[in-house]
Amino acid sequence: MTRYLLRRIGTAVAVLWAAYTVSFVVLWLLPGDPITTMASGGLDGEPLTPAAIEALKARYGFDKPLIAQYGTRLWDALHGDLGTSIQTGQDVRGAILDALPPTLQIAVGGLLVAVVLGTGLALAATYTRFRWLRQVLMALPSLAVSLPVFWVGLMLVQIFAFGLHLLPSVGANGFKALVLPSLTLGLPMGALVAQVLAKSLDTALDEPYVTTARAKGVGRAAIHLRHALQNAAIPALTVLGYVAGNLLAGTVVVETVFTRPGLGRLTVQAVGVQDIPLVQGIVIFASFVFVLVNLVVDLIYPVLDPRIAKGVPATA
Amino acid sequence: MTELLIRAESAEPVSSSVVLAEPPGRGERLRRLLRFLGRRPGLVVSAVVVLLVLVAAFFPAVLAPGDPNLGVVADKLRAPSGAQWFGTDYLGRDVYSRVVHGASLSLQATLIAVAVALVVGGLIGLLAGFVGRWVDESLMRVVDVLLSIPAILLSLALITALGYGTVKVAIAVGIASVANFARVMRAETLRIRQSTYVEAARSVGTRWYVTLWRHVLPNAAGPVLVLAVLEFGLAILAISSLSFLGYGAPPPAPEWGSLIAEGRNYLATSWWLCAMPGLTIAATVLSVNRISRALDGEWRRAA
Amino acid sequence: MSERASEPSDLRPPLLEIEDLDVAYRIAGGRIDAVQGASLTVAEGEVVAIVGESGSGKSTLAQAVIGLLPANGTVTGGSVRLGGASGVTELSGLGEKAFRAVRGRRIGLVPQDPTVSLNPVHKIGKQVGEVLRVHGLADRRTAAIRAVELLGKAGLPDPEIRAGQFPHELSGGMRQRVLIAIATAANPRLIIADEPTSALDATVQRRILDHLDTLREQGTAMLLITHDLGVAADRADRVVVMSGGRIVEQGPVRRILDDPADAYTRRLVAAAPGLSAPARPRVAPVPSGSPIVQVSDLVKEFPLPGRRTLRAVDGVSFEIGRGETLALVGESGSGKSTTARLVLRLADPTSGEVRFDGTDITRAKGGAWRDLRRRAQLIYQNPYASLDPRFSVEDVVTEPLRAFGIGGRAEQRARAAELVERVALPAALLERKPVELSGGQRQRIAIARALALSPDLVVCDEPVSALDVSVQAQVLELLEELQAEQGLTYLFISHDLAVVRRIAHRVGVMREGRLVELRPTEELFTDPAQDYTRELLAAIAGSRRTSVGRTA
After folding, report:
1. Strand partners of residue A15
2. pLDDT in tens, C354-394
3. B83-102: average pLDDT
């Protein structure tokens, strides 16, 4: 078990380091001349003066060799220093942490929607004896993953804000303002969870050990919940880890649609002005969250399936 | 099916365990296809939708002869009607024409994205799965890292570095889904490479590159193709999102995502500006996903 | 033994009466009548075996009795009556809820494959106790205590420890004992055992069957489903033979074996490998020239996690003469398949030497390795897995010719037709895909492929163990014919001693990587020198029956 744990943590750290490297390559090497890119001001910003460009070059160490730049920046990042934003001059870490609280609210809301909706739908669809009901229930997730997220958000606004006047269309004030963004964020993820869980429940229910349980005289509901669900939970948990790790990415669109402040908006703004240090900071932060969530998921696996900690392939 | 065949054979002595049923002829196959489609009206509708979208992308004038950028201001913000199926926008431009002509840019971007992901990811996966050992290890670590950065953020980072425009957005989306293809291709390659029939081929003296060409690629093609079609739907969604955020083609060129972004300001009064392009995207993605599901063994299972 | 034979079943009250039972499966575009008009009776304390090949409907019949048919299967007619202390219950058409009270309580099930029939995420004790709790025979605390008792009774060593373990920590045989404990926990009068040992090694199989025998002494009746007539002969009072969904014959075991009335039963009895010694023992050919294969002191180690190694093959030496069939037998993990792969140079040995036709091929690479591919071929256990599903039969058979660039397209076609004919298949099959063929046909195609390059040596790795017995007999016959025609040399790998006795000139017994005993076949079977060999021979299903027959 300790070995399993150490191996997982080691992997997490390695992935994080590699993510840093990838984002460094993409953002600092790919443009050829990042300073010129940033100085152009991108989509929304103003171009910089030549003097300001020289100052930038000196500040970001472009006079030094590439490997030294990488080393310095990685060292700084290890100490929590992600550099400063070009556009605002603010500390990147501070900018991210400032934008985080409103984003966390809808992220948690979205996750709740995803878990409740996904699990409920999958359980109902696999439990029902009516073929038509099952088909209807299972058509819902494939419908939900086919809709553009931003469009769903806009349609929800149209119906609940402009049509029924039940909920606010924009802003971040109070609980009511959380409902629509959380729904928009959670729906596609819940659909994903539902699809995977329903499939693995079906697989589990076809396993010979379910026949054994039925031959004991165990009832349907008990077989569903006590025998199949725990076995089916692992693939669903994997997807949930992936979903939770991707919540931040989802907020990019959702916060734009609902004009909410937060990390997603910050990202859109940073990309808009090609603020490379800020974009890199956000990417690293997102992979940090992703790695963390998946570490937690990895730690739950052995609780659900005793074979995993022992390194037995969990295929049987 | 096999059980029946085995039974038929075991009931007979060897010499007469001959042919059990003639292989299906061409007419029989066509009948089977029609029967298959007849039971699946959803699939037929999906195929028609995809066909229409393809026509719109390559020959938009066939479906919408008018100029998508020409508007009659007097006719602005008209609701959908017999004359203007999808209504008109704030400049009086026909939304239907703009959606049809928008298909061209949106689909082009989607095709580029899927092609990038398929070629790059497919090669990585094939290499990792076939060569194995340290090549596999190192390539798959890179893939893991790509997976640990949420796709849309990776695309955004690439856009920050590359700049804006339809093609750049397409490449950014494509690279963000390289990891998916690499994983599926690797898993398939590995499964087939370790299969008994590949070992059998090797043990009768077939050279490794012949094995790769004759056994591994044809057998891996199916699942990868299914993924490619599925990815096509995902790419449409990702590209329209990025275009909605304003990183695609500059206005007034119509793109499905940017059409919705334009309509957003009139959400309270003119629902069709957002709803119609959105429904088009949804219908396209749904159809593509339905076809992907059909490709994923539905035909074989119905046999 | 004699007691069993002397007590006619009709004197005991009937426990299970199946009358005119029909079961059908709905499938895409129609239905399959899996069981048609089946009638049979199981008396209190009686063991009835249902014997049949795959697709005969024997498992479907058992599933219908316990109400566990797959979702697309239904009982379309007839009746199933279950007797007992609480009166007679009609089971066909019984509601799900009422059936639940029957399952586990009045009928226990021992399933087919113990490795997948226990819930991997629940502890053993909990899974045994669940039966008692479901039927209200124990509460949480007493269930745990009773579970340990039951595990002990099922012959599991250290039941207290086992109860706290998960299924993956137990061997296959131990898991089957757990499943027997589950089936018998609530003291049902009837046990249905569906191929209870076909996934286990022969010696383990015998011990499990012995344990099931002890249940009979406690008055439990058993419906034993098996493909192996030998098992039925050893363990049952009466045998029911099924074919094509119908019962073709039933009666006391001795009558069925000695005087089968039905043609199919006669064929089945004749084909059953364990029931009779072969009519003409195979005599080894006079050795001509040097042996084709010489193996000396062969060792193969596999690395295990934690810097340990597994010695899969441990100092094995033998020779195979030209035109000879040498068989290597052993249970799973004995190293017999690894040895075969080393001989073929499909794996690297750790040490030792392999000579093929006088040439050292232990480390052969490149050109020498490819030359060997022409002269030595392999036939696999699973004929389906060894054929590329996208290839036509012609592609499969001509693949070796293409690999060595032998002949043009037309010549390859002609050769393919010739090969297919030689394995007694019609040429029309050449355009088919493997999926359209039966198991026996597929294995014939694999044999045709192996013959394409006219090899000197053919290694057969469990070539018939995936096939039904009657098909098995046909494929073995074919292998013998081919050997006689072409002077082939076989290295025959099998776990099945009965099969080996039919085909091999000499037999080597392997255990834990070592070659325990290597003797001419008849000598080994009639006068085994090693204890382990004796144990293996005793475990052959049907051997009890033949030995009883001899003493009588």
Report:
1. none
2. 999 888 988 888 888 888 998 999 998 888 888 998 899 99
3. 78
pLDDT attached to residue B2: 34
Tell whether C386 is within 8 A of chain B (Cβ): yes
pLDDT of residue C8: 46
pLDDT value of position C295: 92
The stretch C502-516 carries a mean pLDDT of 91
DSSP β-bridge partners for residue C319 = C294
Mutate which of A154, A276, A288 to disrupt the B interface (most B C-beta within 10 Å)? A154
Choose among B235, B258, B290: nearest CA to B99.
Answer: B258
Quick one: closest CA in B to C472, which residue? Answer: B10
Give every strand in the sheet of C246-252, ordered side by side. C107-110, C190-194, C221-226, C47-51, C238-243, C246-252
To the nearest whole Å, the CA of A210 is away from the closest chain C CA by 8
Which value, in Å, is the radius of gyration of the alpha carbons in chain C? 26
Angle at which helix B217-244 crosses helix B272-293, to 10 degrees, equals: 170
What's the DSSP call for residue B295?
A: I
**Confidence band (pLDDT; 50, 70, 90) for C287?**
low
Q: Which class is domain A102-272?
A: mainly alpha
Distance CA C354, CA C338 (A): 13
ipTM above 0.85, yes or no: no
Q: Which amino acid, one-letter code, is at C325?
A: T
Q: What pLDDT is stored for residue B15 in this prediction? A: 33
Examine domains C1-106+188-270 and C293-389+455-538 and report if their fold is the same. Answer: yes
B-C interface: how many C-beta pairs under 8 angstroms? 115
The residue whose two tokens read 């045709």 is C448
Q: Is residue B76 part of a domain?
A: no
pTM: 0.81
The token pair that represents C337 in the structure block: 């398949």
Q: What distance in Å separates the CA atoms of residue C509 and residue C530, rounded to the nearest whole number?
A: 10
Determine the Cα–Cα distance for residues A230 and A236; give it in Å rounded to an integer: 10
Contact C55 B6 (CB under 8 A): yes
Measured distance CA(A278)–CA(C29) in Å, rounded: 61
Query: How far apart, in whole angstroms, are the C-alpha atoms of residue C103 and residue C273?
Result: 35
Output the furthest CA–CA distance in chain A (Å, rounded). Answer: 82
Is B50 domain-assigned?
no
**pLDDT in the model for residue C70:** 86
Asked whether residue B24 is domain-assigned, the answer is: no
| Residue B216: domain span | 82-302
**What's the number of domains chain B is made of?**
1
Taking the domain C293-389+455-538, which CATH number applies?
Answer: 3.40.50.300
Q: Kindly list the residues from chain B whose CB atom is less than 8 angstroms away from the CB atom of residue C399.
A: 201, 204, 206
**Record: fold of C1-106+188-270:** Rossmann fold (3.40.50)
In the predicted structure, residue C241 carries a pLDDT above the cut 80: yes
pLDDT at B24 over 60: no
Cβ–Cβ below 8 Å for B161 and A291: no
Task: Write the CATH number for B149.
Answer: 1.10.3720.10
| CA contacts within 13 A on the Cβ side of C44 | 8
pLDDT at C484 over 80: yes
* Segments making up each domain of chain C, as ranges: 1-106+188-270, 115-187, 293-389+455-538
The stretches in chain A having pLDDT less than 50 are: 312-316
Contact B219 C428 (CB under 8 A): no
